Amino acid sequence: MKKILAFLMAFSLMAGIAFAADDCKNRGTLDEMYCDENMDLVADTPKNKKDWKDPRTLVFTYTPVEDPAVYKDAFSDFQKYLEEATGKRVVYYTVQSNAAEVEAMRSGRLHIAGFSTGPTGFGVNLAGYVPIAVKGDAESFQGYNLIVVTRKDSGIKTLEDIKGKRIAHTSASSNSGNLAPRAIFPQHGIVPDQDYTVVYSGKHDQSILGVVHGDYDAAPVASDVYYRMVGAGRVNADDINIIFTSPKFPTSSFGYANNLHPDLVKKIVDAFYSYRFTPDMQETFGGADRFFPITYQEDWKVIRDIAESTGTSYNQDGLKKMAQQDAEKAAKKAAKAAKQKAKQ
């Protein structure tokens, strides 16, 4: 919690720093640190070449959607490929929250990353993140659905049945775990926080495990996370019912920090588009065999629309709210662990 609170203080300080000579003609929804004169909704490369970064070591991470250690191993071959393509050392940086991932790129400690669908907007607006790809195949990018899971013995068969229940959402910034349910469920006569009690679990896998263990009556989660957990044997599909499935959304995005040197950016982009997943990666990522090209402007429109419809702003206040929720969840998790340890 201390680390997250320290981040909030540092972030507020950084947010107050304006350009000495602000000649940006269009910023759109981006933070004041960035400019979008080509109006593609992501931060432009800095005009001043002195601001271009060409670090000896590149730092890479993947969204903390599940156990971070799993993905450190999953991306090890791609890291080696990046090293060969860029001629630089590439290290994996494990992040424990979406807010921490955004702060790491904004502060310059993170250069290449995979952001979850919802937090991608925070990365773009507040950290100069430039999304370029999504996991996919030769035909299209890999997508996922918002699904609602419940135990088969819960008696819950439809969305209508979750009224009055205790339902796990993941985190404030999550698309399928929070924003999409708040935008879509009212279309089916169900309003979160009014028709049922929302409890934030922190992550998709924690929502799913919580449902299985009886901590929650049901949970809206990302279908790709659910099926990976089933495939890995972490949960038994025979014990679970899926009572709702949404239209398809793009899955986690991949990209780079806008202030990297253009020559380095070209090498990074070429590496993403030319790399082919190992058999182990294909198994981990549901059959995807490559990084499929996308743009934030076009392919994230549905996600931005959902965020707008739920009143979510990809700005400093929104990120602070997400960080505070992360701190509260971390504190509860620590308290629970301490309580269990005391019983032993």
TrEMBL record:
Top-level taxon of origin: Bacteria
Biological processes per GO annotation: transmembrane transport
Basic residues composition-biased segments: 332-344
Zinc-finger recorded as keyword: no
Domain Solute-binding protein family 3/N-terminal span(s) in chain numbering: 57-288
Cleavable signal peptide: 1-20
Pfam families reported for this sequence: Phosphonate-bd
InterPro entries per the UniProt record, alphabetical: PhnD, Solute-binding_3/MltF_N
A GO CC annotation given for this chain: ATP-binding cassette (ABC) transporter complex
Positions of region (Disordered): 312-344
Keywords associated with the record: Signal
Family per similarity comment: Belongs to the phosphate/phosphite/phosphonate binding protein family.
NCBIfam families per the UniProt record, alphabetical: 3A0109s03R
Record-given protein name: Phosphate/phosphite/phosphonate ABC transporter substrate-binding protein
Organism: Candidatus Desulfatifera sulfidica
Lineage of producing organism: Bacteria, Pseudomonadati, Thermodesulfobacteriota, Desulfobulbia, Desulfobulbales
